[in-house]
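Extended Data, panel c. Modelled sequence:
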Amino acid sequence: MTKDEEHVKLRILKATRKLAAARGFDVTTVREICREADANISLVSYYYGGKEQLFEAMLDEFMLGRSFSDALRQEGLDPVTGLERLVARLFALWQQDPEISLILHQEFALRSERIAIIQRYTLPAWSLLRHYLEQGKAQGIFHFQSLDLALLQMTGSIVFSSNAAKSYPMLPILDEQPLSPYEHLEQLTSSLLASVGYVKPEA
C-alpha cells in the first residue's frame, strides 16, 4: 500500500471518528464521511467492505486497549502497582481521545449491536482490573465484600472521572475548577485504592 493510500485511509477513519462523536454513528452516512475526508465514496467499500466494518477499523486504529493490557499482564506486577499502572494508562487513553470515548458512551446508551465489537477492545483491560482486585484480596491487601461491586465502582469511576472535563457543563452541581491531568489522576488513583480498603504501609 502506498503512502497516499495510507493517508486516505487515515483521513476516512478520522472523519468517521469526528462525525460519529458529533452526531452518532448510526445517523452518519458514508457520503458525509467521505465528504469530510475528501475521499471518493467508493473507497469505503474498497478498503473496508462497508460502513459497519468501518466502525471496527476506527476502533482498531484509535483504541489500544488490547495491546497495552496484554503487555501489562505479562509484567506480573503486584496488585497495587498493577492497578496504578492500569488506571494511569486508561486515564491517558480517555483523555487523549475524547471523541472515541463519546462514541463508546453513545453506543452503550443505545444498546447497539456494535457493543460486542467494542467489548473486544475494552474487556481485556477490565479483565486485568478484575485480576488485580482478586489478587489483592487473596493477599490481604484489598478489603471488600463483593468483587463484582468493587469492579463496577472502579470502572465507573475511571470512565466517568476521566471524562469529567467534558461533563462540567452538564453537571452544574460541580463547582470546583477542573484539576490538572496529573492532579486528577493522582486523586483518582488514591480514591480507587481507598475504596477497596487499601492502606499504604508506613515507610
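The chain has a mean pLDDT of 87. This feature is highlighted in the accompanying rendering.
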